[in-house]
UniProtKB/TrEMBL annotation:
Protein name as it appears in the record: Fucosyltransferase
Gene of this entry: LOC105227256
Species annotation: Bactrocera dorsalis (Oriental fruit fly)
EC code(s) of this entry: 2.4.1.-
Lineage, broadest ranks: Eukaryota, Metazoa, Ecdysozoa, Arthropoda, Hexapoda
Subcellular location: Golgi apparatus, Golgi stack membrane
Chief place where the protein resides: Golgi
Amino acid sequence: MRYTERRSIDATLLKRSGDEEANAVENVAYVTKDTMYKRKKCTILLVILVTCASFLGIVHLLSNAPEFNQYRILRAYQRQIRNEATAIDAGRPRTILLWNSFFKNKRWGFDEDTLGPDYFRDKMNCPVYRCDLTNNRDFLPAIEMYDAVLFHVAEPFPLLHSVPRVRAPHQLYVFALMEPPGETKHVLSDEGGFYNLTMSYRLDSDLLWPYQMFEDIETDAVVAPAIRPKWRQAPAVWNDTNVSQLWEGKTRMAAWFVSHCETLSKREKLAAALQEHIPVDIYGKCGNFSCPYTSNECDELLDKSYKFYFSFENSLCNDYVTEKLYNAMKRYVIPVVFGGADYSRFVPPHSVIDAEDFESAAELAAYLRYVATHPEEYMRYFWWRRYYRLTFRSPFCDLCAKLHSVPFRQKTQTYTDIEKWWMGDQCRFEAKINF
């Protein structure tokens, strides 16, 4: 082959190879652009998705933020509570076990050893009544199945099985006592962390256990005992028809029914100091007069013959107000009180005469003589009967309600130092009045 022809062929092959290479480069460039476009598109979509997700996240956070949606959150929670409460009401009754006796009374004054929801509803008039109350430890298969166990602390624990051997986490142990700290029959320093609830006469108890309550006649609302009761004001002038009719027969000054002669409050010495200034008839083994205290004869004697009755407590302790006062307020006689309570938290204004409002027994006696000789002033002490009535509500109603309360059951409470709570700064041994 000639040289010129060969060069022509090589040139043609070289051109064809160059064209193929150019096409290949062009194809590669096209693929690269397409890939970059797709990547850019994916990046844009990813940015959009991230932005949308962030926006939705912010919306979700704002929609659940309490500062923007507190009402919706509250309504949702209340719906949940109602649903849970409905489920609880549909379940078993709550069970309350009386672990030891109440002054040798195993029934704590109730009619039977075991009381069911019907008793809570019909006899105690409890708004929440699905509870069983028993002193029978075999009422349920195991002690740890009871919802609440009550311990009467004015009596020692039983010698055998002094306390339950097993305790479930859900169980509430209740410290129950109507007597003042001086009557406690337990070494409370050994019982720290044992009790979850307190049931006593003290106004700061978890379950208030008063002897009586005052109820507004018009509204049926319980007014006292309370830390800040809202009383009506006593009128400047008042006349009670029943007292007016009895007035002429009330020729005797003061009476006192008492059987506990030596007390921490020294009430017997106050009575003796008053006897130096006014006549005081003391009934029972501490005095010279006798009357069956539980009979109607004693009540009628107060109504018809006496102007004052001494409601003196045996201890000067915070909130300690017993049946001595309320029994007198049921009669047509003015109670003269002596105790450690702030009586404005317990009785209507100008309904009793507080001995500790006076500096001395002589000053108190002088005021009693004044009231006894001024019928219009005497009548004013009975104004409250027009607006209030004495009533009673069992603390077991409140306990039953707490055992059925979903929010209450979510709380955890233990008295780590029950001795300090019960005895610390609660009582005094010196009276404010001198005698």
